[in-house]
Amino acid sequence: MSFTYLQAMPSPKEVQEKLPLPAPYHALKAERDAMIRDVFEGKSSKFILIIGPCSADNETAVVDYSVRLSRAAEKVKDKILVIPRVYTNKPRTTGMGYKGMLHQPDPEKKQDLEAGLFAIRRMHIDVIKESGLTPADEMLYPENHSYMDDVLSYVAVGARSVEDQLHRMVASGVDIPVGMKNPTSGDFGVMINSITAAQAPQMFIYRNSEVETSGNEHAHAVLRGAVNKHGQFIPNYHYEDLMRIARIYDTKELKNPAVIVDTNHSNSGKMYLEQIRIAKEVMHSRRHCKDVEKLVKGLMIESYIEPGCQKVGEHTYGKSITDPCLGWDDTERLIYEIAELI
Fold this sequence. Notes:
Layout: H1 12-18, H2 26-40, E1 47-52, H3 59-75, E2 80-84, H4 113-131, E3 136-138, E4 154-157, H5 165-171, E5 178-181, H6 188-199, E6 203-206, E7 209-212, E8 220-223, E9 226-227, E10 233-234, H7 239-250, E11 259-262, H8 265-268, H9 274-288, H10 290-295, E12 296-302, H11 328-341
Parallel strand pairs: 1-2, 1-12, 3-4, 4-5, 5-8, 8-11, 11-12
Antiparallel strand pairs: 6-7, 9-10
Helix pairs in contact: 3-4, 3-11, 5-6, 9-11
């Protein structure tokens, strides 16, 4: 047969019991979740920054980065709500290459999924403990969300996953905001359909059980640009794009209309320094139009300690081993500049 069953994996309950979020941080998580919900519900005017490495490959560097981020976040806390991007799963277009810490706790060693589960949970918890910030991750594998549902404050469904039925239905049962990215084709209709499905109650089979969800009223759009049939990048962060999604939202009966703009990926053409210009353009669009200001709740930015990227095995501390990222100096400066534009 084509499947070889290697071992039974521990249940989410077993993993959480073996590596629990310490009790003192439960209240912090609840407080942060409420603050983030208030932004999406329009009760708070704070601007969200989901910011961090393309992939969280090294706990020491990721925690170090998160502590730096918390210091900057404290200086802008009246205007900006910072969510550290701690992405532990890396989608691969071809299915080959480094797939994130879940697969390889050590990028230079073979895959070990059980060790990976504990490694990524430990990293999320250590980010919370050391920085006081609760993280975001990508829901690449919807069956795995239950392992981390008590430590995450935001999840995103990626461009290659957003059309998948199981991702949409699991998003409908998640109790934190879920960003539904536009697909790589750029089709806003697909993205809106995914938000509609995520906001609706659903019944399906999940982790060997029949489950029912109540719907996630904080599911929202994430604009990350597109790629056309010729392989060319098509950005969708411009003022006209933001007005277009605003008009589409107006025609739908969706709760808490919201957009997060991803400044990298196809919006930047993977030219990571362009994120600075793109972020500022989005902020100017918000200042230009009240409808855009009301709709655009935040930005996603890929950033790490050192700028650019490196190959696995090069061992530059705090430098991405996947897509290139802004370095810390540019990141800190950008955070303060964004605050001034709010």
